[in-house]
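Record type: ASSEMBLY
Status: queued
Input:
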Amino acid sequence: MTKIWTPMIAAAVVGWAAAPAYAETLEVISPDGKIIVTVTDDGGQASYAVSFEGEEVIAPSKLGLIFAEHPGFERGLAIAGATRASNDTTWEQPWGERRLVRDQHNEIAVIFRATQGPARQMTVRFRAFDTGIGFRYELPDQAALQGDIAIVDELTQFGVGDKTTMWYTPSDEFNRYEYVTRTAPAGEVDDAHTPATFRKESGLHFAIHEAALVDYSSMSLGALRAGNFEAKLRNWSGGPKVKTTAPFKSPWRTIQVARQAVGLINSDIILNLNEPNTLGDVSWVEPGKYVGIWWAMHINEKTWGSGPIHGATTAETKRYIDFAAENGFSGVLVEGWNIGWDGDWFNNGDLFRFTEPMPDFDLEGLGRYAQSKGVRLIGHHETSANIANYESQMEAAFDLYEKVGVRQVKTGYVADAGDAVRLDQDGVRRYEWHDSQFMVSHHLRVVEAAAKRKIAINAHEPVKDTGLRRTYPNWMAREGARGMEFNAWGTPPNPPSHEAMLAFTRMLAGPMDFTPGIFDLKPNERAPVRADVPRGNPSNRPQTTLAKQLALYVVLYSPLQMAADLPENYEARPEAFQFIKDVEADWEQSIALVGEVGEYVAFARQGRKSKEWFLGAVTDEEPRDLLLPLSFLEKGKQYRAQIYRDGADAHWDTNPYAMVIEEDIVTGGKSFAVRLASSGGVAVRFIPVE
Ligand code: NOJ
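Status: finished
Output:
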């Protein structure tokens, strides 16, 4: 016998009732009625299933937790009660893709009681939104589960179906998250990072990820059998997967669901499942655009290390500060400014000194010079993932940066996956994964230490984003995918589909410091600056048109948006550069208009300061004619559209610079027709006609 609980009779928590002889089945339904989560204790096991408009999204899939020394929750479980709640509130982001975020959901917290062994219970809390669901485990305070708990397995499964198309990066390989996204039937995938994106044969889309990853290890997907994944938690070196203390709550496991692919992007469930801002006044966290001594090193124009072409010199930094001030950028990133870069810095994380500038870099003078020009230095802490070395200097390092007026620091953890250095209580080196519980906690130690000095963090080689920017608004951006740098030296460089893929995969997690805006699209064809520092392979180049580089400022969201190329390359193309100067990095609203995973995507975003709308669209190898609805503009109102589009004969490979810049009058509510070249794009700024 199956019993459906209605909100009325389930309003109270049912305590330690005798185990019912029948399976209990409960439901929670999204506010629009389309998504149904079903939870049951059938067969003594906890499981859930998800459907959308009556179609199965997640087949009945197991839930549970196993501990090293305590009795866990796997079999012999019975639903002992449930509470329900609903929410419909709107909260404001200090910065973001949209200022106002609506959190509308229905919730059920289901209590599972063990019917065998010591008396104990766990709660699984489910929230159903119109754009997906989240659930997490909560272990309440109870006699059988006290003190330190070691989780050896989380039994959460995701029955996605073996024929379902899956877009993912592998989770157990050396380069962390930095792989070209793969496409395969889910039944052929062994392991995957999240967000992982799926399309059922019916065309229904969904994505699996997690929210609020705090004091827990990161979840990836491991194949149990074809089309059925288990939550794979990264383990400690020589230890369990999670070390915690009862009572505790797990991160939220999330499943975004939408008929159209863009529906996955137009969903705020990851942010809504995070806790509100804990930092109080964060007016010092300032979104903005920046330039930096960065690409020059990636294309072997300069070096991070000292020597004749050292990048981070006082004179070169002044040149960038002047360029930033003249062109309206708020920050100048400087890499290679401190002691530790000489030699094999990849493997010498012990040598980095975070308070000792190189002799040819006047940190204090440059900090003052930048501020006199209305610009700030952006700091850089490359750690080579030697966490012990970094944490021993971190407080002093942030003190120094605060003193010289730095408000944003890019951190870096270059090292193979599984090679982050921790010293144990006996001083022995242990090696942890970039997505381990140790690193999850390390990043928050950094973010909290930085917040004390009013400094924001942009982490490279990070742990993936799970929406913690809501709780810690100074954790502004991260990398965590292949960025622009792969086009300087990556083998192979990012393919033409890369950015239209990121929009539907990595970007579901949160902002990315992709660093767009390369104008010299064949950087490795330039003559070397010195014979002993040769350029890279000429086939390493951005595989995009110039117009696509501009479109990326609207397509790939980051509150810290870099203009990544050298100043001289912008000065050589002032008309195209105008768009980068005009576009904003902080938004009042954002809408993903149309797109298909890895093929094309178009976004409209409204600037938070200017209230002007911008549009960006990109395509893969395939040229495309798009007819984009101008439904985001005020209906019937006229706008001057400043359009940067691919020229008629543009092609990323053979003619990447062919670009038409033109102005047109368009009307809100009508459509905008545009042709994108092979790996091309379009960028538009709309100015209301008064
Ligand atoms: C890799 C980062 O992604 C890149 O941006 C940085 O320049 C290098 N590490 C050096 O820290």
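Annotation: The radius of gyration is 26 Å.
Annotation: The mean pLDDT is 96.
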